[in-house]
Write a structure and sequence with these properties.
By secondary structure, the chain is of the alpha/beta class. It is built from nine helices and nine strands. Strands 6-9-7-8 form a four-stranded antiparallel sheet, covered by helices on one side. Helix 4 links the parallel strand 4 and strand 5.
C-alpha cells in the first residue's frame, strides 16, 4: 500500500500490511513499491487526474501489470483505459446498482454477501484460466467432467476477447486462455486450478 498519511500507514503496518509512505502521484513511491515487478495494481485515489497519472506511470514501468483504477466522472473511464488500465470501477455506479438490487432482489444479494464475504462460508464464485498444456485445453465440458472431479458448477466461460457464454452446454470446448467461471467449495476450486494448469 502507498499511503501519504504516516498515522494511517502505521495502523496498516500493525495489521501486517507492507506500506510505502509517500505520494502515489510521484514516481519514487511507485518504484519503492516495486511496481515494475508487480502482477497487479489497484489505483483508488479520490481524484481522477491522480489515478490517470498512476496508471500511465505504472504502465510505462511494467507493460505486463494488470491495473484496476477507480474513477468518479464518466468521461474519465475511457481516458484511464487508454492510459493503460485493464479495468475501471466507479464506486458511485456500483453503489447505485447495489441499492437497486437490494430493493428488487434482496435474497440474491444476501446470498452473494454470505458467499463472498463470510469468513465461515466455504462456497465461492471463482475463475480458472485454461493454460495451453493443461488437462482441460481443447476438451469439452462433457469430456472434462469438472463436476465429477471437483464438485463445481460451471456457470460461464469467458473468451480471450472478453465475451461470456453463460450456462455452457456439455459440447462446449475449452480453449487455452479462456476463463471458466465456477461456483462451489474452495477445495474444488483448488482442484480445478490444478486441472487448468494454474497450480
Amino acid at each position: 500500500v502507498i499511503e501519504g498519511n504516516e498515522e494511517l500507514a502505521e495502523e496498516l503496518r500493525q495489521d501486517g500490511v507492507h506500506v510505502v509512505v509517500g505520494d502515489a502521484t510521484r514516481e519514487e513511491p511507485l518504484v519503492e513499491a516495486a511496481v515494475a515487478k508487480a502482477g497487479r495494481l489497484v489505483s483508488c485515489l479520490t481524484d481522477d487526474k491522480d489515478n490517470l497519472f498512476v496508471v500511465l506511470t505504472a504502465r510505462q514501468m511494467n507493460p505486463k501489470i494488470t491495473i484496476v483504477s477507480r474513477y468518479n466522472e464518466d468521461h474519465s473511464a475511457g481516458k484511464l483505459r487508454k492510459a493503460g488500465a485493464n479495468a475501471v470501477v466507479s464506486p458511485t455506479a456500483i453503489g447505485g446498482l447495489r441499492m437497486a438490487s437490494e430493493a428488487l432482489r434482496p435474497a440474491v444479494v444476501s446470498f452473494l454477501d454470505v458467499m463472498l464475504r463470510s469468513s465461515k462460508a466455504t462456497l465461492r464464485v471463482e475463475e480458472a484460466v485454461v493454460q495451453e498444456k493443461s488437462k482441460l485445453a481443447n476438451k469439452s465440458l462433457k469430456e472434462a467432467r469438472i463436476s465429477d472431479h471437483t464438485g463445481l458448477l460451471v456457470m460461464a466461460v469467458r473468451s480471450r476477447g472478453g465475451d461470456y457464454l453463460f450456462n455452457p452446454s456439455p459440447s462446449v470446448v475449452f480453449k487455452p486462455g479462456e476463463a471458466l467461471i465456477v461456483m462451489g467449495e474452495i477445495e474444488g476450486v483448488k482442484k480445478l486450478k490444478a486441472l487448468a494448469g494454474q497450480a
